[in-house]
């Protein structure tokens, strides 16, 4: 079994990229594995959560058996939960299967290292202006109060993006972890070339048909709503609505170091 770890900040395009990769032979995306396994199984089994495979969590042929086993055997250690999930994945889908994990943060990376699983890491960054636009919209819908309202400010999301990505990339650079870094926009605007580069790194055959996501295989319980929208899985459609957001003007002017970092890491190719 191969494991592909697709790491990024939230709202950075990991769902789209994981669905592209899950269209390759034997690859299946499980979404944010760590965020699911750290919770009590009852949260997912009892609340009638829907999986991207069109089944409820209870009847999903991956998450249903895995979460029921963890619940029945009262497995509390996150490392043991991960080990069982990987074991079931191999048993159910075969030794040649490829698991795609899009967990946020970096705790799952440490788990893979502890349980000695061979994996390949992709680090994905989204244009800071698009990221800030998306995150501020989410914060506005949540109607936060008090100091939490600051999350709805574009300038705050600029800083969050900068320090979040810088911290993670610095950690990766200071370890022996090998990783493939890619900008989401760079991927969207140069799909064939970047997919070819990515397939070379992952050692999987390149096929431009992956970009249609027509054969994508996934069991994703949380994340981008497109996981349930079949019409949005027919091709990569870049959302450029942030281009008309005038709120980006001030942060771009007062944070030139962030714009320089954005250009270097998102559009490095």
Can you describe this structure in just a few lines?
The protein is of the alpha/beta class. The chain has helices at residues 14-21, 33-37, 41-45, 63-72, 78-93, 107-114, 128-141, 154-173, 184-189, 191-202, 249-254, 256-266, and strands at residues 2-8, 27-29, 98-101, 119-125, 179-183.
Question: Helices, strands, pairings?
Answer:
Layout: E1 2-8, H1 14-21, E2 27-29, H2 33-37, H3 41-45, H4 63-72, H5 78-93, E3 98-101, H6 107-114, E4 119-125, H7 128-141, H8 154-173, E5 179-183, H9 184-189, H10 191-202, H11 249-254, H12 256-266
Parallel strand pairs: 1-3, 1-4, 2-3, 4-5
Structure, explained:
With 269 residues, the chain is an alpha/beta fold. The chain has a single domain, classed as P-loop containing nucleotide triphosphate hydrolases (Rossmann fold, 3-Layer(aba) Sandwich). 45% of the residues lie in helices and 10% in strands. The protein has 12 helices and 5 strands. It has helices at 14-21, 33-37, 41-45, 63-72, 78-93, 107-114, 128-141, 154-173, 184-189, 191-202, 249-254, 256-266, and strands at 2-8, 27-29, 98-101, 119-125, 179-183. A 5-stranded parallel beta sheet has the order 2-3-1-4-5, with helices on both faces. Helix 7 (128-141) crosses helix 8 (154-173). The two termini are 31 Å apart. The mean pLDDT is 91.
